[in-house]
């Protein structure tokens, strides 16, 4: 029985729709354009009077090939294998971490990595973590067996501040990470102290200036000439002190901002040291200076900052040395090929307990005497930062009744900067150094 082209079209459409539905159910792409091309070819064969059965056979083979080509094997299901944490696997993972890490099993310390053992001691392994930390906030965090953070103090030293980060990793296992927050706390406290001290130092001369100006303005007719001159002298002195304080604050800010930038200018020190020392002494104190510039080493430095360093050291020696005693300024080269500048006075000296704090901002061994002499309390703090920027070393030694010696060593221009800046807050090495 012959099949009409219309009937053939209907059968093909039903077949294609059936396969299309099946393919869509399987999430596969249907090659519609290829099916249309196959059907057009089938119609063309009919129009050319090709045998209907042969045409249907070709169409069937063609569409079947298209269906097979469009099909793809079903995706294999992914098998997720959950791997439990074990003591051995965690030990290998954390042993060489630079952060102190502790693993507890039922709140007992089962593992402490090398950093934690160095920090807290080998004995902590096997102890109850709550006994090790001894802080209510940390004990509560461990006892409640939950994830969280706690701040603890005094794990190693009394002033230390540590953040304890606890994460549960199993039914009985938890990892405790210790993060040292001491430096951040010290920086915050230093900033707070600096603002408080600077505000106090600025208010003191301003109060004097405003008080004397108010007195002069209200009693201009009743004050005699000597009293007025004395008041004006005080105003001028306090104004100059205020000017010096602001200048030193700006200098300290600039030096701190640049202390990580290595200077690159080659500078011969002999003439610079002599010129800066004479500027610090001025015409009325120049006779007190004695120079011993046995060498003229060159350094890679910042000329302006090095001059400021010399001026500050010489000015301090002139202020706090005996009025009739000489100030020695010596420049030579150490056996380690560093340029060495020494400023020595013959004053009252400084007690040993004050020496580690001398380069702190606004620190004074005798506040009344320092303010009377016009000191701002920032001179040695500026010196410390200049020395650090030049990768040098600052040594201060003193003996009561005999005087103070300040020594600055800076690598010569042809030498590697072997002396790194000190990490402690003062940057002072109190051990005495003999001058050759």
Can you put this structure into words, describing what you see?
- The chain is an alpha+beta fold and 436 residues long.
- It folds into 4 domains: 66 residues, no CATH class; 95 residues, Beta-Lactamase, CATH 3.30.450; 54 residues, Orthogonal Bundle (Helix Hairpins); 149 residues, Heat Shock Protein 90 (2-Layer Sandwich), CATH 3.30.565.
- The chain has 13 helices and 12 strands.
- It starts with a helix and ends in a 25-residue tail after the last strand.
- The C terminus is likely disordered.
Provide the descriptors you would attach to this structure in a database record.
4 domains, 436 residues, 5-stranded antiparallel beta sheet, 12 strands, Helix Hairpins, 5-stranded mixed beta sheet, alpha+beta, disordered C terminus, 47% helix, elongated, Beta-Lactamase, 13 helices
